[in-house]
Amino acid sequence: MHVFYTYLFLTDFKQDWFLAVLRFTLILFVIFHVLRHVRDTRAAIGWIGFSLIMPITGFILYVMFGVNRVVRRAQKLVNNRPWHNKLLSNMTRYYIKGHFYPLAKVVEGFTQRPLLMGNEVEPLFNGDQAYPVMLEAINSAKVCVFLSSYILRSDKTGKIFADALITAQQRGAIVRVLVDGIGSGYFYCPIAKYLKKNGITIDRFMHSFLPWKMPFINLRTHKKILVVDGTIGFLGGLNIAGENILSNQPKNPVSDTHFKVTGTIVHELTEVFLQDWFFITAEDLNKKSFYPAIETKGNMICRIITAGPDTDMEKIKYTMMQAISLARESIRIMTPYFLPDDRFLSLLCLAAIRGVNVEIIIPEQSNQILVDWARNINNIIPLQFGCKIWLVKAPFNHSKLMVVDRVWSFVGSSNVDMRSLRLNFEVNMEIYHKEFAQTIDDFMGSHRHRLLTLEKLNNRPALAKFRDAITRLLLPYL
């Protein structure tokens, strides 16, 4: 009996010793890895604290969700892609003068993309205007069609686009389609099945049911890109779904703004799609036929800017913040979800304090109730410092627009929230053109319905304030 108890004691001692060493080793790993790779101080403190309290669980969760494998994957693939930007070298670069010179200089520095002269950008409102023009372009394709969309529904509208893509490939055009692994259906994506059945090469962005690939589930491509023959491009906020055709009176209508682009800037947009396609599939579509010689189409000066949790980290946010810091007269931002971080809000407040007319235009009610609750807390600070927040009446407006001093415009897929500005893969375009900026600025101004006031926010019931404060903790994930 004595021997038996001695055995149990030694066994327990060995197990306790092993677990103690294991916990200590895992804690050291998390601490050293966090200190080397996690830039956000609050996130770093959170991961270290969690690993100290629960070493094994903390280690598992950190390895799954805290390690940014996307950066390493992107760097590896980009470094193995020698044609990156080389096909753009023959384009005519343009250099901005005046008080926006610092903006142009800074953005070129961190994007490594030039401003290109000789473009025409046409706004298209809702699917009613945009879809017929997009389908016309696809139906004219002879060389290639590249489509990337967060949502490509398998409804009547989605099937029309799918059939146009199938027909284009049957005519001999090279067709590639990239849809998001969540936005277009995580467990079941009928449009992907339909396109594959008809011979279209389609992939779902970072989609997998494998547990070791779960870290990517929170990283989505929110880009909306269509490029045809390297000469016509489309980008903006518009997904492909029946809810965007307002004339059909859908049950949950979504108003949106998209843009048709022609001219030299289409080369940059083409490269963005091919970079994403290579990132996901490793298929190198290095064909000069995708970058044909393009005649200048207008006098707009444009540049494509991409962002994502890879080598493009927060570049869209940096662009917007630099533009805000240079504003002299006015800033107008139209976004479906307004949940920026404190740095972004501080710049808006400072602009308002120095006399800039700052207007944020958001839906009276979005399609995400949690976002509406969380934004109530965020809206207090800009209102305190003189920013104006306007509410847009129904239908829900999904447009993503920004104009500074009625001269500089910024359009694309990115919302002004932490998810878009940090986690999502996004694509925007900056435009230096006074008349275009005035058109977009006036469009935003026409949607101002009701002014939000501090009094309105402060008079909310105590329970609602408590609810909003709790919801705000989810900001990085909304």
UniProtKB/TrEMBL annotation:
<comment type="function">
    <text>Could be a virulence factor.</text>
</comment>
<feature type="transmembrane region" description="Helical">
    <location>
        <begin position="47"/>
        <end position="67"/>
    </location>
</feature>
<keyword id="KW-0812">Transmembrane</keyword>
<keyword id="KW-0594">Phospholipid biosynthesis</keyword>
<keyword id="KW-1133">Transmembrane helix</keyword>
<dbReference type="Pfam" id="PF13091">
    <property type="entry name" value="PLDc_2"/>
</dbReference>
<feature type="transmembrane region" description="Helical">
    <location>
        <begin position="17"/>
        <end position="35"/>
    </location>
</feature>
<keyword id="KW-1003">Cell membrane</keyword>
<dbReference type="InterPro" id="IPR001736">
    <property type="entry name" value="PLipase_D/transphosphatidylase"/>
</dbReference>
<dbReference type="InterPro" id="IPR022924">
    <property type="entry name" value="Cardiolipin_synthase"/>
</dbReference>
<keyword id="KW-0808">Transferase</keyword>
<keyword id="KW-0472">Membrane</keyword>
<keyword id="KW-0443">Lipid metabolism</keyword>
<keyword id="KW-0677">Repeat</keyword>
<dbReference type="InterPro" id="IPR025202">
    <property type="entry name" value="PLD-like_dom"/>
</dbReference>
<keyword id="KW-0964">Secreted</keyword>
<dbReference type="InterPro" id="IPR027379">
    <property type="entry name" value="CLS_N"/>
</dbReference>
<keyword id="KW-0444">Lipid biosynthesis</keyword>
<protein>
    <recommendedName>
        <fullName>Cardiolipin synthase</fullName>
        <ecNumber>2.7.8.-</ecNumber>
    </recommendedName>
</protein>
<feature type="domain" description="PLD phosphodiesterase">
    <location>
        <begin position="217"/>
        <end position="244"/>
    </location>
</feature>
<keyword id="KW-1208">Phospholipid metabolism</keyword>
<feature type="domain" description="PLD phosphodiesterase">
    <location>
        <begin position="393"/>
        <end position="420"/>
    </location>
</feature>
<dbReference type="Pfam" id="PF13396">
    <property type="entry name" value="PLDc_N"/>
</dbReference>
